[in-house]
Specification:
The structure is a homodimer. By secondary structure, the first copy, chain A, is of the alpha+beta class. Chain A has one domain: Winged helix-like DNA-binding domain superfamily/Winged helix DNA-binding domain (Arc Repressor Mutant, subunit A, Orthogonal Bundle), CATH 1.10.10. Chain A is 68% helix and 13% strand. In chain A, a hairpin with a 2-residue loop joins β2 and β3. The two termini of chain A are 40 Å apart. The interface between A and B is medium-sized, with 34 and 34 residues. The structure holds a DNA duplex. Chains A, B: Keywords: DNA-binding, Transcription, Transcription regulation. Chains A, B: One of its GO terms (molecular function) is DNA-binding transcription factor activity. Chains A, B: It comes from Flavimaricola marinus. Chains A, B: InterPro entries: ArsR-like_HTH, HTH_ArsR_DNA-bd_dom, HTH_MetalResp_TranReg, WH-like_DNA-bd_sf, WH_DNA-bd_sf.
Amino acid sequence: MTYGDAIDATFHALGDPTRRALLDRLRTGPLPVCDLAADLPISRPAVSQHLRVLSEAGLLLVTPQGTRRLYSIAPDGIAALRTYLDTVWDDALAGFAAAAHAQAAKAARKE
Amino acid sequence: MTYGDAIDATFHALGDPTRRALLDRLRTGPLPVCDLAADLPISRPAVSQHLRVLSEAGLLLVTPQGTRRLYSIAPDGIAALRTYLDTVWDDALAGFAAAAHAQAAKAARKE
DNA sequence: CATCTCCGTAAGTCATGACTTACCGTAAGT
DNA sequence: ACTTACGGTAAGTCATGACTTACGGAGATG
């Protein structure tokens, strides 16, 4: 029924637009918290909380550098997401094709 | 900055575990609402509301059949998701590789 | 037509979670 | 050692949204 709590946390983390904005911002490379907060209309602690959620979901990595903490996208997290989506995708396509087939057969029988 | 409200609605819809359970349930093929509600510990109206959210996010298709309404996964919705993830994925991998490279170069310089 | 099943909508309740300010560590610079 | 920048945590507020029950409409069945 569930693909595990990991995927669960991942999708929950991605559900928030601000967190996706953070991910987008990190696409070009690692950044410290202050830089991330400067681009967003929310307070720095709020950013910290979002980063925490993303990290616990396995989507971010942290590398302390002096007094700063550089956040970067975790390839493993994205990989898990893609794996999940690929599964849903394949099954859905197969199911869709089968349904379309059945539908076409039924229509052909009817007309 | 945003990939559009469509992707926004899609991720929001996927953020709820019950809705992902509905998607999982529909992977094998279209089902009417009563069947979907039977598998979940929530009321049927709650299921209807989730189905509405998923439909508006472009993730589900509806095909009325008499008094029933068959819900099925919308391939286009999943496709949009994959496209978005592919973009994030590619950029992140490139950024990660670049960062790792810089890190390795710095480490080599230091030692 | 009467009835029954299927299902969407409305209204209201309640939990979750996204923000705020205030505070406290930790590391670098003087 | 003192100060300053960075950033995580705590506590509290407030909006969002996930559920409930009650209701109404639309199609099948007698």
